[in-house]
Amino acid sequence: MPRPATSSAPRWPRSPLGHRAERRPDLPQGCPERVDLDLLRYVWRYPRRSRPRVLAAVAAYAPDLPVRRLRGRRHVARFLAGIGKRS
User: Minimal CB count within 10 Å: which of 2, 13, 16, 25?
Assistant: First the structure.
């Protein structure tokens, strides 16, 4: 789902902060979560740098592949709800 960097990047560091006292439930034992500047930089730059390359690669190598751009939480929920209904 395309999101402006100003809304997605600030949310990323909140995850480690929410589980400071205990281990995050989805991480393996002995694997603490760390704030990674490289990942934060990637998230911030993704819309400008990586998304155009990903879309160009899909268009070049899989032109018949349907690509859906989900532009909000409501669209994501509607899309996910409809997945099981397709035959």
Answer: 25
Mean pLDDT of the chain: 79
Q: How far apart are the first and last CA of the chain?
A: 24
Contacts within 8 Å (CB) and 24+ apart, 5-12: 5/43, 5/44, 5/45, 5/46, 5/47, 8/43, 9/40, 9/43, 9/44, 12/39, 12/40, 12/43
pTM of the model: 0.55
Residue 74 CA to residue 18 CA, distance in Å, equals: 25
What letters, b where the CB count within 10 A reaches 16 and e where it falls short, cover 63-82?
eeeeeeeeeeeeeeeeeeee
Q: What is the mean pLDDT of residues 46-70?
A: 93
Query: How much helix, strand and coil, in percent to the nearest 5, is found in the chain?
Result: 50, 0, 50
